[in-house]
Amino acid sequence: MIIEDDDLQYEIYEEALTEYELVRVSTGTEALQSISRNPPHLILLDHILEGGELGLDFLADFKDLLPHVPVVIVSGALEVHQRITALQGPRRAHYCLTKPLDLEDLKETIWVALKECGETEVVRQFEALERSRRVDVEDLLSRSTDRLLRQSQIHRMLANSDQRPNISALARQFRVARRTIIRDLQELIRRNEIKPGIYPKWETGIEDEDVPR
Fold this sequence. Notes:
By secondary structure, the protein is α/β, with parallel strands linked by helices. The protein folds into two domains: 2-117, Rossmann fold (3-Layer(aba) Sandwich); 124-205, Arc Repressor Mutant, subunit A (Orthogonal Bundle). It has eight helices and five strands. The longest helix has 40 residues, at 119-158. The two termini are 56 Å apart.
C-alpha cells in the first residue's frame, strides 16, 4: 500500500515497482479503512498528505492494526528528530527514506523489508528466544551437574570424619566461593549424607571470597 497524495510521486512508484501489486490511498484516514478490509504486505508512507493529514500521526494506528507489516516512511519534510522518533518504540517504522528518492535504494529497501521484516522477523525472534531458553536450560543443567559432582566428592572426603572441614581449603580446591561450599554442606546435611555437627555454624555470616569457577 502506498499512502501518497502527490500524483507525480505515485507515478514514480508505479514505474519503479512494477513487480508489485500497488494499492494507493491519499490520506491516513483512507488507509485505515482500506487495510482493515485488505491488509497489505508493506506500507509505503508519506508524511504530508491530503487534507493536512500527517503520515506519522497514523503510524501507531497502522502498527496496532498490522503489527507485523513493515512500514517504510518516505518524506522530505521530516526533521532528524522526527525520523529518529519514527524508528523507535514498539510502534516504530522499519525504514525512513528521504526525498528525492534514489529509486535503486527504494527497491532494495522494499525487497529487504518484505524478505526480512514482518512475519519473518517475528518468527526469527521466536527462534532466537527458543535458542536462548535452550542455552539457559543447558547452563542450568551444567551447573546442577557440577554442583552434584562437587557435593559427591565432598561427601566422600567427609563421610568418615568427625572434624569440621576447612571451608577456605575446600573453596580453593573446587574453585568456588566459600559460601558455595557452605551451601553444599547444608544440602548434604539435609540429605543425611554427612553428620549435622560437621557444619561450622559460625561460618554462616562470612562474606564471599569469590574464587573463579
